[in-house]
Amino acid sequence: MKFFVDTADTADIRDLAATGLLDGVTTNPTLIHKSGRQFLEVVEEICGIVDGPVSAEVVALDHETMMKEAAILRKIADNVCIKVPLTIDGLKTCKALTGEGVMVNVTLCFSANQALLAAKAGATFISPFVGRHDDNSFDGIKLIEDIRLIYDNYQFDTEILAASLRHPIHVLECAKIGADVITAPPAVIRMLSKHVLTDKGLEAFAADWAKTGQTIL
Ligand code: G3P
């Protein structure tokens, strides 16, 4: 399973990239706003930190303007992945860009039928929003299961990029189902390394080591 981090905070991206865990980065207009930085500049910096796909989202709603925005974004670096919304115009843009060999992430997916359309449009990634699905009393994890089943039924190459993950259990469930990629905020990725017994064990080892009166260095 690939790990993407869902942020435009380059300090967090650098820190996580150093662990070797990061396979890519996803951004969206909200995360760019949160960074307080210029969109093109921050995407360029992120593309220099990770080798994998860096999702940069178009903001236009019509196909023609989406293509113009994509033309600017794809010039930033070879690992830019153009993010388009799951609308008919977004799907047209997906079809056109993937036809030109550009990676496309189709975002704001909330149903398995929408995911089916994205796969038929040749999407590189489909981003079902698990947490926002749960927020609205739907079952976000069931959505991932349904998409996995449909994609496997027809051997679609589109990768399931489980997005809007809010906690480690979301990551665990996505891994069990076989999501190809998860994207999560830095805090959620860091939480995956945590266990109360790891902390307790470290405390006990530190205390016993101190009693030996030894040093390694
Ligand atoms: O980037 C898309 C997605 O991961 C957003 O997550 O938590 O804002 O629903 P969230």
From TrEMBL:
Q: Which GO terms describe its biological process?
A: carbohydrate metabolic process; ketone catabolic process; pentose-phosphate shunt
Q: Which GO terms describe its molecular function?
A: aldehyde-lyase activity; transaldolase activity
Report the subcellular localization.
Answer: Cytoplasm
Identify the Pfam families for this entry: TAL_FSA
Q: Which CDD domains match?
A: Transaldolase_FSA (cd00956)
Catalytic positions? Answer: 83 (schiff-base intermediate with substrate)
Catalysed reactions, semicolon-separated: D-sedoheptulose 7-phosphate + D-glyceraldehyde 3-phosphate = D-erythrose 4-phosphate + beta-D-fructose 6-phosphate
Q: Which domain of life is it from?
A: Bacteria
Pathway assigned in UniProt: Carbohydrate degradation; pentose phosphate pathway; D-glyceraldehyde 3-phosphate and beta-D-fructose 6-phosphate from D-ribose 5-phosphate and D-xylulose 5-phosphate (non-oxidative stage): step 2/3
Q: Which UniProt keywords apply?
A: Cytoplasm, Pentose shunt, Schiff base, Transferase
Q: Give me the Gene Ontology terms describing cellular component.
A: cytoplasm
Q: What is its EC number?
A: 2.2.1.2
PANTHER family noted in UniProt = FRUCTOSE-6-PHOSPHATE ALDOLASE 1-RELATED, TRANSALDOLASE
Report the protein's function: Transaldolase is important for the balance of metabolites in the pentose-phosphate pathway.
Q: Which family does it belong to?
A: Belongs to the transaldolase family. Type 3B subfamily.
Q: What is this protein called?
A: Probable transaldolase
Please tell me the species this chain comes from.
Sphingobium ummariense RL-3
